[in-house]
Amino acid sequence: MSNASCSGDAAEFEACRDDSAALIFKIVAIAAILTAGVTGVAIPLVGKKCRFLRTDSNLFVAAKAFAAGVILATGFVHMLPDATSSLTNTCIPQYPWSKFPFSGFFAMMAALGTLLVDFVGTQYYERKQEKHRASQLGQVDSVDLLSDSGIVEVKERNRKVFGEEEGGGMHIVGIHAHAAHHRHNHPPGQEACEGHVMEHSHGFGGGDEEGSVRHVVVSQVLELGIVSHSIIIGLSLGVSHSPCTIRPLFVALSFHQFFEGFALGGCISQAQFRTLHATLMACFFAVTTPAGIAIGIGISSFYNPDSPRALIIEGILDSISAGILVYMALVDLIAADFLSKRMSCNVKLQVMSYFALFLGAGLMSSLAIWA
């Protein structure tokens, strides 16, 4: 099962087989895809220092919508059809693979699993932040509450705590006060937009702690989905012996890696990680596809990508990747931004974002012609 070949176009493959030329193309592909990945993921991370590319700017929101379209098309147009093709191949055992739509089932279970990870991760980071705030407030030795002004006067302290004023006092900004402040009710219609304050728009402002927690979870889960299928596509290119296959594939994968890197870089930027953490996540993403190609080169002499076992493994992994990416695109990227108060109150931003969303999805879908 592991060595038998299911390739139906062996004659065409043999006519274009050239191991030495294929190796040169693979080396060029490693360099090109690595460059594209680094460039894509670096633009949002470096650009956040520029005023027009900050995470609270309209341009960044539109760029994020473009990236969301890329991720959605990757799941629906690239991953899921490939998974279905592998798991319905006539060379793999008819039972049970032809008796049930396993690609859709695995994608669905991966999406539900991502929801669970999303929820548990958010709960974990929220509790972690609450403990951090409590430890900060616990450093104040004695306080006098001024009932009229709502100011806490600090008698003895070793250093400033969050929210402390220059005059020696601090606003009461505990967990419950913070939550109550953000539970305010917006009036309907135009008044809601007129009273909308940019600093408190959830999910966009860099200083919003709840939004920051969500971005931490989103960026990590999104990287998991992207990395898992990046290794697969890198491996499939690395084991190929045909320049006719590799030549268009590595060009398409370079654009593929650039767009996905941009999407991931935007999420990492909004999560406000420390520089080292953000750099490690960006590098891990950038090297996965080149590493998959390198592994494919190493095992190409004995690995048969057309064997039944390889088809089943790739089909399952593609299905799981598709489920993760579709969930992340629809729930954590598109719904979070397009259903926000900021978007509903800004017609210009709506037009920009919807255009960018469809453009990203369309361009990424068109790459399926070559890869």
Automatic annotation (TrEMBL):
Pfam families registered for this protein in UniProt: Zip
Transmembrane portions of the chain: 23-47, 59-80, 100-121, 278-299, 319-339, 351-370
Localization per record: Membrane
Classification via InterPro entries: ZIP (IPR003689), Zn/Fe_permease_fun/pln (IPR004698)
Record key words, sorted: Ion transport, Membrane, Transmembrane, Transmembrane helix, Transport
Family: Belongs to the ZIP transporter (TC 2.A.5) family.
Protein's name in the database: Uncharacterized protein
Organism, as annotated: Nyssa sinensis
Biological classification of the source: Eukaryota, Viridiplantae, Streptophyta, Embryophyta, Tracheophyta
